[in-house]
UniProtKB/TrEMBL annotation:
PROSITE patterns: PHOSPHOFRUCTOKINASE (PS00433)
Cofactors that this protein relies on: Mg(2+)
Protein name per UniProt: 6-phosphofructokinase, liver type
Catalytic reaction list: beta-D-fructose 6-phosphate + ATP = beta-D-fructose 1,6-bisphosphate + ADP + H(+)
Keywords: Acetylation, Cytoplasm, Glycolysis, Glycoprotein, Kinase, Magnesium, Metal-binding, Phosphoprotein, Transferase
Any one cellular-component term (Gene Ontology): membrane
Pathway(s) per entry: Carbohydrate degradation; glycolysis; D-glyceraldehyde 3-phosphate and glycerone phosphate from D-glucose: step 3/4
Transmembrane spans: none
Organism: Pterocles gutturalis (yellow-throated sandgrouse)
């Protein structure tokens, strides 16, 4: 508003854009949103390709010159579909930016999605309460299922946080294989013979087609018969948390400001003869934190490193946490197995 733009909000995602659920907003309309959890605008998983013509019609009707999309994998994939449809619809040659916001943390182009810190804190608090329950009943193993689709970073990250707070025996099972499970059962059996007579197994909801939570419960119950018993806990939507954490509030503000400034700059660059015409690849980007820099990544380039079948990036940085989880769970492993880090050249920009 300070830079002279007219701001509209669209309810219910791309479906709302197709139905014309668009209204102009001012300062007072968004007051108090920062500390509230959830989405005030509503979310839908509808992709633009199912209603492309209606979306184009409303873009033309409201004279939309820039689109800021906040959401998860559907937001990224939706913007990618809009970019690919520019050849058919000239109205889609506008500036587009995606702010990744999902607890699954599965949007390529960023290491952390907005809301993921709140989600892992909610999972950690739940596991702490489960640990407290286990401390009253000896020789008990809890199997906890987390949300996140095919992308399960919170099994690794949440497991690391929980263990540093004293929950012994937490085991990452995002890649469930027979020998891993066998080693895990043997490790828990040995642990029950010590002073630490409790265990915690974290499992992502779609980590394997056949190794379900019920299967793991039956396996651990059978193998631990006479030594320990098992209980199942499915976190479900409790993991989405309540009020955002300070990190997410700060991160959301930072991404919002940087995204709008970037869009304003791009709009000035592509403004020609009284209209906006943007058809280059860098006019539609995903903003995100990559290592220690907030960067913009064109969606056309991110398409090459995306697994659309499983809805996640082809490479995930959090997979390197697995060996550290073994260390925290007191597995007998060699430190030489741990992946060594690489030194980065320090420049004035990185400082």
């Amino acid at each position: 508003l300070c830079q002279g733009h007219t701001v509209y909000v669209v309810s219910d995602g791309f479906e709302g854009l197709a139905k014309g659920q668009i209204r102009e907003v001012g300062w007072h309309d968004v007051a108090g949103w920062l500390g509230r959890g959830g989405s005030m605008l509503g979310t839908k998983r509808t992709l633009p390709k199912t209603c492309m013509e209606k979306i184009v019609e409303n873009v033309r009707k409201f004279n939309i010159q820039g689109l800021l999309v906040i959401g998860g994998f559907e937001a990224y994939e939706g913007v990618l579909q809009l970019v690919e449809a520019r050849g058919q619809y000239e109205e889609l040659c506008i500036i587009m930016c995606v702010i990744p916001a999902t607890i699954s943390n599965n949007v390529p182009g960023t290491d952390f999605s907005l809301g993921s810190d709140t989600a892992v804190n909610a999972a950690m608090e739940s596991c702490d309460r489960i640990k407290q329950s286990a401390s009253g009943t000896k020789r008990r193993v809890f199997i906890v299922e987390t949300m996140g689709g095919y992308c399960g970073p919170w099994v690794d990250i949440g497991g690391t946080r929980v263990q540093t707070r004293g929950a012994e025996g937490c085991r990452m099972a995002a890649s469930v294989l027979e020998f891993i499970l066998q080693a895990n059962v043997e490790h828990l059996t040995d642990k029950m013979k010590t002073d630490i007579q409790r265990g915690l197994v974290l499992r992502n909801e779609k980590c394997h087609e056949h190794y379900t939570t019920e299967f793991l419960y039956n396996l651990y119950s059978s193998e631990g018969k006479g030594i320990f018993d098992c209980r199942i806990n499915v976190l479900g939507h409790l993991q989405q948390g309540g009020a955002p954490t300070p990190f997410d509030r700060n991160y959301g503000t930072k991404l919002g400001v940087k995204a709008v400034l970037w869009m304003s700059e791009k709009l000035q660059e592509v403004y020609r003869k009284g209209r906006v015409f943007a058809n280059s690849g860098d006019s539609a980007c995903v903003i995100g934190l990559r290592k220690k820099v907030v960067a913009f990544s064109p969606v056309t380039e991110l398409k090459k490193v995306t697994d659309f079948e499983h809805r996640l990036p082809q490479e995930q940085w959090w997979l390197n946490l697995r060996l550290m989880l073994k260390m925290l769970a007191n597995y007998q492993i060699s430190l030489t197995e741990y992946i060594s880090g690489t030194m980065e050249h320090v420049t004035r920009r990185t400082l």
